[in-house]
Amino acid sequence: MSPGFLYFLETVLNGLMTGVMYSLVALGFVLIFKASGIFNFAQGVMALFAALTLVGLQTGQVPFSHLINAIFGTEFHHFGWTLPAFVAVVGTLVVMVAFAYLFEKLVLKHLVNQEPIILFMATIGLAYFLEGFGDLMWGADIKALDIGIPSGGSFWLEDVTREWATEGSDYFGMYIDKLDVVAALVAVALVLVLTLFSQYTATGRALRAVADDHQAAMSVGISLRNIWVIVWSIAGFVALVAGIMWGAKSGVQFSLSLIALKALPVLILGGFTSIPGAIVGGLIIGVGEKLAELYVGPFVGGAIENWFAYVVALVFLLFRPQGLFGEKIIERV
Amino acid sequence: MNRAVDPRELKVHRDDGVAKGDVLLEVKDVSLRFGGVKAITKISFDVRKGEIRAIIGPNGAGKTSMLNVINGFYTPQEGTITFRGVERRAMRTTDAARQGIARTFQNIALFKGMTTLDNIMTGRITLQKSNLFAQAVWRGPALREELEHRHRVEEIIDFLEIQHIRKVPVGRLPYGLQKRVELGRALAAEPALLLLDEPMAGMNLEEKEDMSRFILDVNSQFGTTIALIEHDMGVVMDISDRVVVLDYGRKIGDGSPEEVSKNQDVIDAYLGVPHE
Q1: Is the N or C terminus of chain B more exposed, i.e. has fewer CB atoms within 10 Å?
Q2: How many domains would you assign to chain A?
Q3: Which among B111, B126, B149 has CB closest to A221?
């Protein structure tokens, strides 16, 4: 094989992996949007908060230590233990469910039957609150997240692919981050579990019913408020998974919450109401931006990756505003 | 799986502690306003257990608003509603459903993306013992319960003769069948009071006859109390035991179909009053 083709293959594979990471974030948006019509601006910050909590629990940080120390003049920072990764993940999950419960109790409950824009504003508020709350609770320093997921390039893959290249070429083998492979597998598992859950459990059926028609759901006795808590808990769980993957890749810090911005073009492409759409949209964006960088980048001075996704989204908005998998928009006059 | 079901073996009716013929639902002096618009003014009537009670009236008479008050979508500004001996004014819709009030809608409110089977299964949510959270986490006991519910839902599907569309997403069904699925979903809740909002609107003659038969069967064989809104006078006179007539949000007649059809106010409301 010529090195050119191998570069292409490597780029596509890396694009797919990156795309999966985008899909993980987009998935959280879709879940909440489908069930309640709320665009959850805070999804990215929820991922950041989940990752912060996970690291904090795992390394035995004292929550609110800066606050406590400032008030009481003490010097607590660490409990002096470290928790196994699994325990820390379960602990974080409990925190995210508690968060969903409180958000429903303190905010959503009071905004029932309000315009979507009002609820959207509430999630913007939530985003800023959670950002500050996360800093206050766990500190603003950059943290490393390590729960034992393998990372770095695979030497095996490099060796194998080097053999494929034409004799005498300067191809040094394919680089694919093992972390990305794990993330892809996790995303596939996550989608499978979510699908099974929504298709084959009574709870899933109730969720689908609410997503379909609020009024009818209420008339058969489904409590919307219980459903909100469940949906936000699941979104919290998805945020945790996204937070773990992105945190392990690039460290836990404020910029983690900005991954939500990359989820936007994914949603416009895939449709706001479709779980398969979030996956396919993520893959298209991931592959698209990597290929554009490789082939178009050199002509315009590079750095296409940062804006390419948004241009694709804009073009999509012109021709298919509901996205690839979104419900068709039919307007009756 | 086309087995015939004897509806008498089918328990599609929950024990509500009210004897047959006694008052199941009493609406007393209920008024409902939207801003300055009076939808309902001081309306009182009752529904007795075991009867088919029709609510009729010209367009905009407040019939649907009345149903929405009964099942908790609207909270009236004045008056009380007593259901199964418990008085209330404000009530959440989910609570009304839990007390045994099931309904269908004028413009069909089914879950369009879900199959007939799934739609009717949602009707049993108020009868589920394990709560939604528990089910999400631990499937064991929930699974057994799910099978029981499934069994009852299959019986309702047989009763309504819709076996052939069990797995079809309801959004693709013709209008008449959707109405039947919606009735199935309401029946699945084993309601003490079944509210039907224009169950025959937009149907052809054959579909109307089918629907009338189902309504009569539900009432006579399950003993389910039914309150329905209907425009087709022939149907109303045929199937209902008592009729309440509304016009401009007020009650203008109440009694058996014969009495109501001789009532001068009712005739005026429907045919108009000649101007001298």
Answers
A1: C
A2: 1
A3: B126
